[in-house]
Design a protein that fits this description.
Number of helices: 9
Order of helices and strands: HHHHHEEHHHEEEH
Distance between the termini: 31 Å
Number of domains: 2
Oligomer: single chain
Length: 218
């Protein structure tokens, strides 16, 4: 067909679209961060610390941010000097746990509002389109993670509690062993506090079951 011959591959066009979204997010993040008196990296650190009430070690925070330990240390030291984070004794005598102060939690709640403009855009999609888009994002994030392009994410697809496509229900084909309940693609999580990384063999088997969606009823 004519358009097949003159069009770029779909993957390249999707990538171009994602790049435009990334630019918009970066622009909004800088504006939001500047107004709050923190850099985007510091804002991301605030968000990650808010999701870890028991605290995070510097090495864990650096891994989640996808930055070097010195870069993470600089961000943390700045947050500590501003009274937004505190260093406390960790589970053993030689470890330090990083936690938010009340002021840090308040600011973390504010910085979490930065992507609201994108949320509103996604809400313009129909419910089934949103679920399909989420499923596609899970696959993309997993590929980036497996290739070492981004740090490990606390996703359903890599969790030891995840049982994909085990129910004969097209809307809720998956099962979460943690809460012992069925769920669907629309419930997939990219960041779950209860996520426990599954062994490599289990992750591979779960992926094979997940990557082909459940068949719709005739």
């Amino acid at each position: 067909m004519t358009f097949d011959a003159i069009s770029e591959p779909i993957a390249k066009r999707v990538t171009a679209g994602l790049a435009k979204i990334a630019l918009a997010l970066k622009s909004r993040a800088w504006k939001g961060a500047g107004g709050a008196g923190v850099t985007p990296t510091q804002g991301q650190a605030l968000g990650l610390l808010r999701e870890a009430p028991k605290g995070l070690r510097l090495s864990a925070l650096a891994e989640l941010l996808g930055v070097s330990a010195p870069t993470a240390s600089d961000a943390v030291n700045s947050l500590v000097s501003k009274g937004l984070a505190a260093k406390e004794a960790g589970p053993d005598k030689r470890s330090i746990a990083l936690k938010l102060t009340p002021a840090g939690k308040t600011l973390a709640d504010r910085t979490d509002e930065w992507p609201d403009f994108l949320t509103r855009a996604v809400e313009s999609l129909e419910p089934d389109e949103q679920a399909g888009f989420l499923r596609s994002l899970v696959k993309i994030v997993r590929a980036l993670q497996e290739n070492g392009d981004i740090p490990l994410q606390r996703m359903c697809i890599t969790c030891r509690h995840f049982r994909p496509n085990v129910h004969d229900d097209v809307l809720n084909p998956h099962h979460c062993a943690y809460v012992d309940a069925a769920f669907g693609d629309r419930h997939l999580r990219l960041n779950c506090a209860e996520q426990e990384e599954a062994p490599a063999e289990q992750r591979s088997a779960a992926w094979e079951r997940f990557r082909v969606p459940a068949a719709a009823p005739l």
